[in-house]
Amino acid sequence: MDTQVIVVGAGPVGLLLAGELRLGGAEVVVLERLIAPTTESRASTLHARTMELLDHRGLVEPLGNPACDVLGHFGGLPMELSGPPTRYRGQWKVPQTRLEELLASWALGLGAELRRGHEVRAVREVDERVEVEYVTEAGPGTLTGEFLVGCDGEHSTVRGLAGFAFPGTDATRELLRADVAGIEVPNRRFERTPTGLAIAARRPDGITRIMVHEFGRPAAERTAEPSYAELVGSWAAVTGEDISGGVPLWLNAFGNTARQAAEYRRGRVLLAGDAAHRQMPVGGQALNVGLQDAVNLGWKLAAEVGGRAPAGLLDTYHGERHPVGSRVLSAIEAQTQLLLGGPEVDAVRAVTAELLAYDRVRAHLGSVISGLDIRYGDEGEPFEGRRVPHLDLVTPDGSTSTTELLRPARGVLLDLSGDPRRRTELERTTAGWPGRVRLVAAVAAPDSPAPEATLLLRPDGHLAWAGDAVADPGPALRRWFGTPDA
After folding, report:
1. What are the angstrom distances between the C-alpha of 276 and each of 44, 165, 295?
2. Architecture of domain 392-481
3. Which residues contact 87 (CB under 8 A, 6 or more apart)?
4. Where is the FAD-binding domain (predicted)?
5. Which CATH code for domain 173-255?
C-alpha cells in the first residue's frame, strides 16, 4: 500500500486528524482539491472544549492571544456562556486561515504528507485496502491505503462515492454572508427589524462581516454562490442601507439544512466534520464539532492500523460521536427557529429570554454550545466518559498537569493515591502496555483539588476509568488499549 490512512480534505478537521494520526504512529497522506490554502475565514469561533483539546496538543500558545468573548447567544438572544469550570470559558476568535496554517505546520512537522491539487474521482474498497482515484493537472492517479477518511466538507465527495446514507431535511431558510471592504455600517449583533435579521461586525483591518436574512424568504435552489447584488438588495430590504459601493472579498449563502450520515464508518471508509453532519453554522458549532470528531477518531484509527486496537475500538467512533452530532443538530434547529423566524416566533423568543435569566438554564445551554458536557459511554458510571478537566499536579519529577500529560496523545494511568505500594502495584499492571499507557504517580497541587484515586485518561482527554486506591485498572486497560505485550 502507498500509505496507511488517506485523508481527503485539508481544512481544519482533516489537518487536525492528520496530526492526531501521526502522534499515534500512523502513516497518513492528505489529498486536497485546492492548489493553495483558502484565503476565506468563514469559520472563526472556537469554543471552550475545542480550546482544551488544542491545549492538550500544545497548540493554544502558538495562536498568540486570540480575542475572547464570554457573551454568546442562543438563537440570537444574548447569553453569558457558563457551565463546568474551564480555563477557556467563552468564544475564542481565531480566523480559519490562521487555524489552518497552524494545523498544517503541526501535522506536516509530525510527518504527515499533504498533496494539493488532487481531486478525488472514485473510491473502491478492495480486499484489505481502499483505492482512491484522483486527477491532477498532470493527469489521473491512484492512491492506496488501509483506511480512508472523508473530511471534505458538507458536499463531501467521499461520502457520495462511498455510498453513505445522509438522511435529514433540506434548507427552508437561509442567510446571506460576506466579508466586505469599503463600507460604513453600524455594528449589529442579531438585530431584528420588521423585515428581517441583520448582523454586522467590523474588524480592525476595516473589513466588515455581513449576514442578512429576510423574514419569510425561502432558501433558494443554488448552483453557485449568490451575487453581491443579491446581498445588496437583501441588506437594503432589511436595514434600509446601501452597501452597493463595497467590495466583497467572498460571499456565500447557508441555510438550515440538517443532515447526518446514518453511519460514520462503512468498512474502511469513515467520515468526520461536515462530511458526517451538515448543519446551519450557528455560533460556530459546525467547526467545533468537526474538530472534536477528529480528536476522537485519530487515536483509535492509529491504534487500528498499528495493530494495537482492541476489538470494536474503531466502532466506538460512530457510537460516541454520532449521538453528539445528533444532539448538536437538534440544538441548532431550535436556535434556527428563534433566529430566522419572523413575528410568529416573538412569543417563544420572549419566553426563552426569560428562561435565560436563570443560572441553571444558562449553565445547561452554555455547556451544550461549548461542548463541555460531552460524555461518552455508560450513564451508570458516575465519571467515566466525561472530559478530564485541567488539574495541576506535583510528581517526583516536578510540576505538571493533566493537560501536559496528554500532549503525546497516549493513555495515562494517573495514580493520585500517594501510596508507594500502590505505585509499585500499578507499575506491574501497566508493564504490558509500553508506549501505549504511561503511569504517572502524582498528588494534586494545593489549588487544584483532586480525589485520592486512580484515573485512566484516554488520549482524547476523556476519562476511560476511575477507581479507588485498591481497584484493578486491568480490564479497562484491555478494553481501551488492547492486549498487553507478552
Report:
1. 20, 10, 15
2. 3-Layer(aba) Sandwich (3.40)
3. 51, 52, 55, 390
4. 2-329
5. 3.30.70.2450
